Amino acid sequence: MNGRNEDIEKLYTILDRPDDENEFILQDKYLGSVYRRLYSTRRKSINFFHRKKSEKSDEQEQMNQESKLLRPEIKIRGGLKTHLLPHKEEKSEMKKEEEEKKVSREDKKKEEEVSVTKIKEETKKVRGEILEESDELFEVEKLSEEELKEIIGRERILKVEKPAEVEEKKTERRIELGKEKFIEILSSVKGIGKRKAKMLYESGYTSLDKIIETDSKQIAEEVRGISEDLAKKLKKEVMELQPKIAKDFDQMYLLEEESVAEKAKLERKIAKAKIEFKEELPEWVTIDKGEEPWKEEKKKPYKYEDYTLYKVEKKGLTGKKITYVFSKEPVEGGTPSPIPPGYVVKINKKGIPSLKRIE
Fold first, then answer.
1. In 122-193, where do the E strands start and end?
2. Which residue ranges make up each domain of the chain?
């Protein structure tokens, strides 16, 4: 058993130390044969593998050389020199050139932007220098606090007054006079009678403003019998007359407004107050024999503002029934009628009329 164990240990050493060939062959012939059987096949296989690999690498190199020779060469003209490049290298160089072009474009844009900003800054500096020089030429007086307060107060007053002026301008209206009134006013001017005033009106000068606005030379050319001196005199006197006429016109306008307001007040008073309507009896006329028979005058239908009195006849079991109705629109089966005898009109608070029997 001991000898067997020793042999096993020797086998382990052979496996652990494959390079110590001579030691094993000299120690024991049996171990030398084991070593040869183990490692001779291995060495052959390693040598074979290395040989195969070297052969393959040689073949691959040969193939690469042949492919290089067989590949078509492309001429790329990128300047004065021509380069003979294979296909793959051409693509890579083309990409590089495109990238370089893009970079160059971007650089140019940046340079242009920088140049524009520089120009703007330079112009601003120049303007600032010019302004500083102009400030140096003129001495500016420093205002005191009181003067500043006065200026601010004036500006505020102007701001308040400006809208009022605008309103006055808006309310300004040209006074339009009738033909007769126009002739009457102009005939009061010395040297211009009714005939010349009429000629002025007919030639297009229908308002006093137009006479003031137009040149005296133009008036003399357009209107017969009026010289340039007379036109100047006319313009001067019309300018003096205009404020007076405007004042009179405004007074008339105010009176009209007042009269409208007064009318409204009176109508309200009439509506509220109880008024007794007395029937006016017609005057009887004695007719001589032989003359035409007297014809009774037809009375007009009664109307109050938009309301009209209508007479409506309806047939019933008891006979005809007559009713009176106030309406803004025509009533079916009704005819416009005057106030029947024995009745008066009464108006309520809403302004609606109705008939009331006299007691």
1. none
2. 2-65, 179-270, 277-359
Question: What is the arithmetic mean of pLDDT over 63-71?
Answer: 66
Q: Cα(270)–Cα(346) distance, rounded to whole angstroms?
A: 10
Read off the amino acid at residue 191. G
Beta bridge partners of 320: 315
Pick the closest to residue 230 from 241, 245, 242, 217 (CA basis): 217
Q: Which CATH architecture has domain 179-270?
A: Orthogonal Bundle (1.10)
**Using CA atoms, how far apart are residues 281 and 278, in angstroms rounded to an integer?**
9
φ, ψ at 194 (rounded to 5°): -65, -35
Dist CA 301 CA 3 (whole Å): 164
Name every residue whose Cβ is closer than 8 Å to that of residue 323 and which is 6 or more positions away in sequence.
Answer: 311, 312, 314
- Locate 64 and state its tokens: 């690469």
Q: Rounded to two decimals, what is the model's pTM?
A: 0.25
Structure tokens at 243: 């404020």
- Buried b / exposed e across 58-84, counting CB within 10 Å, b at 16+? eeeeeeeeeeeeeeeeeeeeeeeeeee
pLDDT one-digit tens code per residue, 84-96: 445 555 667 777 7
The DSSP output letter for 230 is H
d(CA 352, CA 159): 52
- Give the amino acid at 206: T
